[in-house]
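Cont'd.
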Amino acid sequence: QLQLQESGPGLVKPSETLSLTCTVSGGSISSSSYYWGWIRQPPGKGLEWIGSIYYSGSTYYNPSLKSRVTISVDTSKNQFSLKLSSVTAADTAVYYCARQGRNTAMVSYWGQGTLVTVSS
Amino acid sequence: QSVLTQPPSASGTPGQRVTISCSGSSSNIGSNYVYWYQQLPGTAPKLLIYRNNQRPSGVPDRFSGSKSGTSASLAISGLRSEDEADYYCAAWDDSLSAVVFGGGTKLTVL
């Protein structure tokens, strides 16, 4: 059974860079047809797609976040990562990593989510 | 402001049928599949409907999806207390080259 697990700091200071890693187990991140992505949910609010990456490195990003987001992949470790720069309190959210279909909104596997708080 | 529009809330009594709407545009719902997610309190979302009207293994047939033009709907029949959750629609948007979500609908079982 495929499992995804987010890891990273739970507290980030304003203007700094948020960094999270997702470790995939029970399957290979190099599987064809799937993208690996990040979705976030501010407390009490809805879901926001951040972006996704193919094992080859091809990426898609949410246009509203594109200038601050970098998603990368490490196939040797079966991991992919998120970096979000110049964070503010508005970036406080539960961050989910997920397996997504290519050019679709189908997310068939989700991590449990990790809360990242932006505060000094 | 979400790209896809859902009502913020819906409600029904046990056994009733409720529907949740999702409105989009030609660049998302109008040209791509619609997906629905159920999020129980304190948990990650779960895929409920894929490709407009398909149910993943394990999802009861009380849940059904449909799509017409630039709108989609999720129907839940035989409402049960455990259906109380937030429901989100989603689609790929060709103009944005991005996944877009609805704002979510909180379903209350009275």
